[in-house]
Amino acid sequence: MATSRNGHLLRLPFYLLSLTMIAPFYWMVISVLKPYSELTRQPPSFIPDTPSLTNFYDPAWTPDQVNPGHQQGLFQRYQVDFGFWRFMLNSVFITTTITVGSLLIASLAAYVLTKHRIRGRRVLFLMIIASMMVPWQTTLVPNYVIMRNLDWLDTYQGYIIPALAKAFVLFFLVQFLHSIPDELIQAARVDGAGEWRIWWQIVLPLLRPALAAMSIFIVLWEWNNFLWPLIIVQSDEMANVPVALARLNSYFSGAQHQGAIMAGGLLASIPTIVFFLIFQRYFTRGIVLSGVKG
Amino acid sequence: MRDRLRRNLTSYVMLVPFLGLFLGFLVWPLANSLYLSFTDFNGVNVPEFTGLQNFRRLLFEDDRFRHALMNTFVYVIAAVGLGTLFSLALALAFSGSSWPHRIMRTIFFLPSVTSSIALMLLWKWIFNPGDFGLANTVIGRLGLDTVEWLANPSLTIPILVLMSVWGGMGYGMILYVAGLNSIPHEYYEAARIDGATTWNQFRYITLPMLRPVTTYVVVTGLITAFQVFEAVYIVFRGTNNIGGVLDSGLMIVPYLYDQGFTHFKLGYASAVAWVLFLIIFVLSLVNLRLGRAVKEL
Questions:
Q1: Contact (CB, 8 A) for B29 and A148
Q2: In terms of residue numbers, what domain contains B126?
Q3: Which residues of B touch A139 (CB under 8 A)?
Q4: How far apart (Å, rounded) are the C-alpha atoms in residues B207 and B213?
Q5: How much is the average pLDDT of B137-143?
Q6: B36 touches chain A (CB under 8 A)
Q7: Which of chain A's ends, N or C, has fewer CB atoms near its CB within 10 Å?
Q8: Which residues are in the ABC transmembrane type-1 domain (chain A) (predicted)?
Q9: Is the pLDDT of residue B291 over 60?
């Protein structure tokens, strides 16, 4: 067992490195729990003396009267109904719609491209593969102009519709469907099932592992999507969580505001971290699978 | 025959949602972007064809763009090089299935599933110039003076690299772990019987067997790094200047955003986009050719 002890010794720097991974997260959490007066203390405390949730909402703060020692909590900083929850709801709605929608339309197309003999499917598939090499920022300017012409700036459809056709999802599903024998689908056809029914009752269930892997990528991507929303969102209400946080960062830059900003960051991070902890196995498998196939 | 025809019609109907959106929001905008890059479009005027003028200005006259390109290349090389090394080292250290290894992998992977804007705001707060910022507290304990981290141009790219490596090494680690666990044990046993040292086993078995994974990690890392935007926008952007102090953090995509959506030089921004396109396209071609090797993993 000498080698094992040796191994632990060799790993020591990496165990120490893991502390540098945890420290920023810890700093974030204690910054949220420190009231304003404690946040800017020098040197800073590493365990909050008087933990409180005033960074979310401080009842002692009033807009018309300066109350020293108090700052607006996160939920007092946005002039929209439901405060920060509004942006969380926007993000949840946009993320779910895009995830479900893009998986549905990509699975339909993947089914046709692999199991139907139609003219031009090779050309189509090549085009889709080629499009995966395009940095999406190249389409930023024209898509902005399209949104403006359709009057879709600052709308949910502006978020959702341009994001639905995802080439990498189609590519991944096509690869996956190739490994499913045609006989299964032929048999259903002989039994008189229509194409839509075959897609819904046979293809989709067979695709489940692939859909699960892809949904993880789509959810993470859309939840964090920033540059596109930054360009199309104009009003306060239509921001998603990243844009709302970035606005907080632009409007309030002093140290006294960092508690509320960190509170927003924490709320923005919790859903995806919980999602990850629940589906951890699928995450790693999905990453490896897409790496292998992509 | 009629049945066949109906099925064909259904096939096309099933293709339409994806294909329509794909053509409408990807293929057409791409063509349009190429066209706009040869015009003086500013968002309001009727675009007038100006030939290669945008590209000539971009490549030969625009000092800011040259600066952005230089910054991006330095950042990309450092971030991807260090990131890959750390990913490999972490995978070698924690590839087992015991619980300490699994916990370590979870910890290192955590930034990959945390809101990226939240992380950038966190870094900005950590590098606060006051004595109460975490970075200044730590170096204060070491007996050093406080530093104006984000206002010092020579620290900008090192900080961007640090944030990228810290946030990305867990992702590469997961890929390397999968690669390591797919190497047959027999290879090592045979090598040990022949008296190979641990170093030689690593050098002549592990590294060559991991080559496809390394290629994948490096190329996807390069593509992501070239598109860096949020870190610059959130952490370094000044009131009037997206690139931070003296443009020390100006990169390609932030410059595209600046030209297109702050100054509304949409034609010029499209030309910037096409330079990015060319860089990424070449990298992706390399990826596609070498990606085939990863499939055998």
A1: no
A2: 63-295
A3: 25-26, 29-30, 33
A4: 10
A5: 90
A6: yes
A7: N
A8: 88-279
A9: no
Min Cα separation B254/chain A (Å)? 10
Mind telling me how many Å the CA of B87 is from chain A's nearest CA? 11
- Domains of chain A plus CATH, in order, are 84-293 (1.10.3720.10)
Contact of A88 with chain B, judged by CB distance below 8 Å, is answered with: no
**Residue B39, strand partner residues:** B49
CB contact under 8 A, B104 and A18: yes
CB contact, 8 Å: B106 with chain A?
Answer: yes
CB contact under 8 A, A27 and B19: no
B152: CATH? 1.10.3720.10
Q: Do A245 and B117 count as a contact with CB atoms less than 8 A apart? A: yes
pLDDT (0 to 100) of residue B132 = 86
Residue A235 near residue A87, CB atoms below 8 Å = no
Give B137's contacts in chain A (Cβ within 8 Å). 43-44
Phi then psi for A62, rounded to 5 degrees?
-130, 145
Quick: pLDDT tens for B36-72.
999 999 988 999 999 999 999 999 999 999 999 999 9
When the pLDDT of each residue in chain A is averaged and rounded to a whole number, the result is 90
Decide: A54 and A36 in contact? Cβ < 8 Å: yes
Question: Which residues from chain B sit within 8 angstroms of residue A245, using beta carbons?
Answer: 115, 117-118, 121
| ipTM associated with this complex | 0.92
Return the residue of A nearest to B237 by Cα. Answer: A250
| Sequence-ordered list of residues with C-beta below 8 angstroms from that of A147, at least 6 positions apart, any chain | A153, A158, A162, A232
Percent of chain B with pLDDT over 90: 81
Side chain identity at residue B143, one-letter code: G
User: What are phi and psi for residue A65, nearest 5 degrees?
Assistant: -135, 130
* Sequential DSSP letters for A75-90: GGS--STTTHHHHHHH
